[in-house]
Design goal:
This protein has seven helices and no strands. It is an all-alpha fold. It has one domain: Four Helix Bundle (Hemerythrin (Met), subunit A) (Up-down Bundle), CATH 1.20.120. The radius of gyration is 19 Å and the shape is elongated. Bound molecules: protoporphyrin IX containing FE (2 copies).
């Protein structure tokens, strides 16, 4: 079954997911920077600590993290939707599997928030491990994603 969309809409739909995901890749690097500043703030002493606290990195990191969570999950579902609309099926390959893996990772890492806020070190360590894995997969998705875009462009 394929949805009744005009060919040009179907074609342009292809670029929605890649553009969104590249924006989110940049946002996730910013989130990582803010997260590392949270850690620096917690470990700092005296004047330096006072200065860092003014940056409100914990609040900003949580906000950017929440935006990332929402758009990463919907962006991945969007990629699957467009693939299905255009091909009538999904391609069970590395991009799909790594993408679903990333969705699971960010769900777990966000779910650790209340525990980190209570000061649990196990939650912080797990959060950092999950998210740096997430960033690694993200870089890999950017490469395999651009390869998919190139395939679409040469098909057209
Ligand atoms: C690229 C993704 C992310 C990276 C690299 C990252 C990294 C970090 C790091 C390094 C810390 C500091 C831990 C410490 O104090 O030692 C942290 C804390 C935290 N992160 Fe993330 N994070 C990411 C995404 C998220 C997301 C998606 C959420 C939730 C929606 C989130 C919520 C939090 C919270 C609540 C804290 C604790 C802040 C506090 O101490 O008050 N992070 N993160
Ligand atoms: C970073 C740059 C990325 C690019 C350039 C990219 C590109 C693409 C393209 C061109 C498609 C085919 C569908 C379409 O034409 O829209 C696709 C599918 C998909 N993408 Fe991405 N993507 C990227 C990142 C991600 C990320 C971060 C995730 C998950 C968190 C993801 C998950 C998926 C999934 C699940 C599919 C469906 C795959 C299939 O069933 O074959 N993508 N992507």
């Amino acid at each position: 079954m394929s949805l009744e969309l005009t060919p040009s809409i179907k074609y342009w739909l292809n670029f929605f997911h890649p553009v969104t995901m590249w924006a989110l890749l940049v946002l996730s690097i910013y989130a990582a920077y803010l997260g590392l500043q949270v850690q620096r703030t917690r470990n700092a002493q005296g004047e330096e600590k006072k200065e860092l606290i003014k940056g409100r990195y914990n609040v900003r990191h949580y906000q950017i993290g929440s935006i990332l969570l929402a758009f990463l999950v919907t962006g991945a579902i969007g990629g699957m939707a467009v693939t299905y609309i255009n091909n009538g099926k999904l391609f069970v390959g590395p991009h799909l599997l790594a993408g679903l893996g990333m969705v699971s990772l960010i769900a777990f890492s966000a779910a650790l928030s209340p525990y980190m806020q209570k000061g649990a070190n196990w939650a912080r360590a797990t959060h950092i491990l999950l998210n740096f894995t997430l960033l690694g997969l993200f870089a890999w998705q950017a490469v395999s994603g651009v390869q998919i875009v190139q395939k679409i462009l040469t098909k057209a």
